[in-house]
Design a protein that fits this description.
Largest sheet: 7 strands, mixed
Bound molecules: pyridoxal-5'-phosphate
Distance between the termini: 78 Å
Structural class: alpha/beta
Radius of gyration: 26 Å
Shape: globular
Order of helices and strands: HHHHHHHEHHEHEHEHEHEHEHEEHHEEH
Strand order of the largest sheet: 1-7-6-5-4-2-3
Helix content: 40-55%
Length: 545
């Protein structure tokens, strides 16, 4: 029998797939291929907290790519893949303090890898089998954690924190405008959120057909939490004007400063307005807790006994966060990112609804559909925005919840907050530096550095409030930008800490942006010496900038 040409090639291609039946030799090849790639990545490590070197992004070169006639070997491809990661920050490095990106734990990486091999699809339990139970288990664990009744709550993993806000707002639309799913979204809906809330509020309003203009941005206190008097005024103005409140978004941990809204008071306000205006719907409250949710592990921590031995300053910060995070159960829905404060790889985001009956509002072609969750079978695909949903985020989240337990998360978060508090203590102790989120209780610190001769005790407030200080503010904005460049270049030489900068920490009362330097601590490997290094870097930079 003659072999046709394609058959030989097919044989080679078969070797590039995991063997469908047990084949130890081929498994060894598979695992070894991964090991080789990891080894090559290891070669990219140096004293710089990056893989390889920072590189300028050459899009013109990238756009010359075309599909070749002949494919390459698996080994070549692996090498190519490794090269693609060059320039990536090593998030677990104690001198990487750029943003809210965590280093993933080993079990969470395994949790991401296994579904990549076996490819379950969460659209239904017909395609994900027992793995649908994993999502149910994570939903139950997190429901209990935030104070929802797991027998009533429901949840789905979705495409990011943005997706969780989108689900929350969509539920709000269906409540404020019944049957919008069938008929479309009428005009007159508003979303109320703080000015410091994540900008995805605009994506959500735009994509859901409310329009970006339907978002009312409510001013915040200096601590970056929403001003309730202004929220109430905005809500009343909307209702008095005959509009309908689609959602009140409470931000439980803002991205740049860890401001936490007073969710309990927001829920009370909503309830009062429903009664007073005799509303025929209850405006939906969504808690954007993608960052703050993890602090729920302190709900049951005895801060007086403080068995884990956190320092007094840390205890105060953790207890302060708990005051508000412990109210998460007052929200109708909550967004949770495991890929932020849960140490899982992207994407791992959970949308949680307190009342599973709400999910019924999202069912496609509702008339023909059986009531959800009544039968033992689960087909989330009838109400999720996505059709195919990968399992990686779910299994990674599950892995970390099992790995850490409440105590592990307390230890990790407690240590990160302890290091951030240490940084704030140092920065407050120097004449030339001032912490902008001074009441901050999270792991992010935004600060500003001043040249000699500036009285930092008064500069911050003057720049923030006094229009006559405009020039001074802008000059110091530039100064902080220069300082940032210097620190960045130094970090890229392997000599310093890699932090980031925010172009607008807050607007001043007279409408100018206030630039801040930002340290986001999320590496479990950080120690006091790394914090001290950053402070030294900053003081050194002042000598040359
Ligand atoms: C990061 C963030 C988001 C968006 O989440 P993604 O996972 O990046 O889509 C929403 N809200 C807050 C407060 C965030 O910090």
């Amino acid at each position: 029998m003659t072999q046709r040409p394609y058959q030989e090639l097919l044989g080679k291609l078969r070797e590039t797939f995991p063997a469908p039946v047990s084949d130890r030799m081929h498994d060894a090849y598979f695992v070894f291929s991964i090991l080789r790639a990891l080894d090559q990545l290891d070669d990219l490590k140096s004293e710089v907290p990056l893989l390889g070197r920072p590189r300028t992004l050459d899009y013109a070169a990238a756009e010359r790519a075309e599909l070749a006639e002949e494919g390459r070997s698996a080994e070549d491809v692996a090498r190519l893949l490794v090269g693609q990661l060059e320039g990536m920050p090593i998030w677990g490095h104690p001198r990487t303090q750029i943003n809210v990106v965590p280093p993933p734990s080993i079990p969470s990486v395994i949790g991401s890898l296994l579904p990549a091999i076996y490819n379950p699809n969460l659209v239904s339990d017909d395609t994900s089998y027992g793995l649908m139970l994993t999502e149910a288990a994570v939903v139950a664990m997190v429901s209990r954690l935030v104070g929802y009744d797991p027998a009533l709550a429901a949840g789905v993993f979705t495409f990011g924190g943005t997706g969780t806000v989108l689900y929350g707002a969509k539920l709000g639309i269906e409540k404020a405008f019944p049957d919008a799913m069938d008929n479309g979204v009428p005009e007159g809906g508003v979303i109320l959120a703080s000015a410091q809330s994540h900008y995805c509020r605009l994506n959500v309003a735009g994509w859901l057909g409310l329009g970006e203009k339907s978002v009312v941005e409510v001013p915040t206190h200096l601590e970056n939490d929403i001003r309730l008097d202004k929220l109430e005024a905005a809500a009343r103005e909307a209702l008095d004007g005959g509009r309908r409140i689609v959602a009140l978004v409470a931000t439980m941990g803002t991205t740049d400063a860890f401001g936490v809204d007073d969710l309990g008071a927001i829920a009370d306000l909503r309830d009062r307005l429903v009664g007073e205006y005799g509303l025929d719907y209850r405006p939906h409250i969504h808690a954007d807790a993608v960052i703050g949710w993890a602090w729920s592990v302190f709900n049951d921590y005895d801060f007086e006994a403080n068995a884990l031995g956190f320092r007094p300053r840390t205890v105060r910060a953790l207890a302060s966060a708990r005051r508000r995070i412990s109210k998460l159960h007052r929200a109708d829905s909550v967004g949770i990112d495991f890929h932020k404060t849960g140490f899982a790889p992207y994407v791992s985001s959970l949308f949680l609804a307190r009342d599973r009956a709400d999910m019924q509002l999202l069912v496609r072609g509702r008339e023909q559909m059986p009531y959800l969750f009544q039968s033992g079978e689960r087909h989330p695909g009838v109400f999720t925005l996505e059709t195919s949903r990968g399992r990686s985020g779910v299994l990674a989240a599950y892995a970390n919840l099992q790995l850490f337990g409440q105590v592990g998360l307390r230890v990790l978060l407690g240590h990160l907050v302890e290091m951030a508090e240490t940084l704030r203590e140092h920065l407050e102790g120097h004449d030339s530096t001032t912490v902008l989120n001074a009441a901050g209780v999270g792991t992010v610190t935004v600060f500003r550095v001043y040249p000699d001769g500036v009285d930092t005790w008064t500069a911050k407030d003057r720049e923030r409030t006094d229009p006559a200080a405009r020039e001074e503010l802008l000059r110091h904005n530039d100064y902080n930008r220069r300082l940032f460049r210097y620190l960045y270049e130094r970090a890229m030489r392997g000599e310093g800490v890699h932090i980031s900068m925010t172009d607008c920490y807050r607007e001043t009362d007279y409408g100018e942006p206030m630039v801040g330097l930002k340290s986001f601590i999320l590496s479990p490997f950080i120690d006091e010496q790394d914090v001290e290094q950053l402070v030294r870097d900053i003081l050194d930079a002042r000598q040359v900038c």
